[in-house]
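anyone seen this seq b4? input:
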Amino acid sequence: MRASRGWAAGVGALVMVLIFFGLGGGPARAATATAADTATFTSTQVGTSGNTPSFTESGNWQLTWTYDCTAFSSAGNFIVTVNQPSGDLATDPAPNELNMSGSGTDYYYDTGTFSLSVSSECSWSITVSPSGVNTANGSASFTSSQTGQTGQTSQFSESGLWTMAWSYNCASNGSQGNFIVTVNQPSGDLANDQGPNELGMSGTGTDHYSDTGVFSLAVDSECAWTINVAPEATSTAPPPPPSTTNSGAQCNMTLPSGTVVGMATTPDGGGYWIASTSGAVASCGDAPDLGIGPAGTAAIAAAPTGNGYWLVTGTGTVAAFGSATNHGSIPAGTQLNKPIVAMAADPATGGYWLLGGDGGVFSFDAPFYGSTGNIRLNAPAVGMVATADGGGYYFVASDGGIFSYGNAVFHGSMGATPLNKPVVGMALDPATGGYWLDAADGGIFSFDAPFYGSTGNITLAKPCAGMTSMPSGNGYRFVATDGGIFDFGGAPFDGSAAS
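predicted toks r here
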């Protein structure tokens, strides 16, 4: 029941997401179909908790629901699981409410024969039917009063740059609450569209996206919320061309706020590169200007020797610069389960590994030590590092879970600990063999590696995008999505790409 699952804990909420998103799991379905396309189920028929008969949908459909806990004499749960057809990998979130009463409509886009499992103490009614709601073009508003605090919105279409402005308020909940939004992307869209993942009494923000097509949003919350999607008011100006000189504590260019995806430190530790989604790379300190890569850049990795780096897109296209050698890309047109989110250089061979959001690892002139591509992770993979000798690698998920392969030694993780913000990256300590994890709020978690400081106790203008360590292990840096740099320990400040 929702009342006992520990909503104030961020990681607890992620566990819950796996339960209600289900991905085809849940109790067994009733075998007999009683309706096609339209059906109404009530607690009078099924019981306050139970399984409905099955029903069939052949196109977009909706689930309209209401519940009332007056007879229960206090706030009650209303938790619905959509039991999906075998092999259906769509995400069908359903109402997960705790209140005296409520109502809403959720929207779905998969087809086949379904049933519903309901867990409640209250009287309720659910009607499933074909959806008559048209796809919104460009701009749309969604609220918890329409959908329910937890549920799925109708679809909207974007043809260019677009934004998602959001706010949530947990005053009626009486305590901190979650506000987690998943962007359901078009089929074949390999952009990594991250939505808000908040835990607090209230909050607001705006996220920016560049992929196009038909989307919907799945929301997991206990709070009142509003989301507005709209075309970007003004297009982001292209980055200035790279300069040919750079020295001292400065970078050769600024990058558009919100576009930075990561950074890489030069082998001598005297500078670093900051990469953006456009493929523009700011060089700072003694890092040379080496060129601009492909649009859709998702990660950067420094070559083990000399001055060079690789850029990789979400589809797995690799571009090499300076001393970095191109060992190959994922073939164009390959259907990835999840976009590429990180890469790491193999110091032994000079090759590299690419990491998908599902934990799948792709090796290019580097040995394959293992992956989680064949299992479902509790949270997506977000970062990757190789061991000092190239005999293994680690990757980290956004819940702080660590996965180690080859000779990589597991030193601990945050996988079972509530986090204020999700983890976005990790770095290896060359001195101890331990590692650091970096959260979106700049919080640092040290595992057999010295703690040099963090920004976990202050509010950043933009969330962190990733981190790197000094070659000697005596410090680390992390970069925010606006290009701001935060350095700790013996890591010198060599400039920022923030405007």
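The chain has two domains: 2-231, 260-489. Residues 1-35, 235-248 have pLDDT under 50 and may be disordered. kinda curious what u guys think
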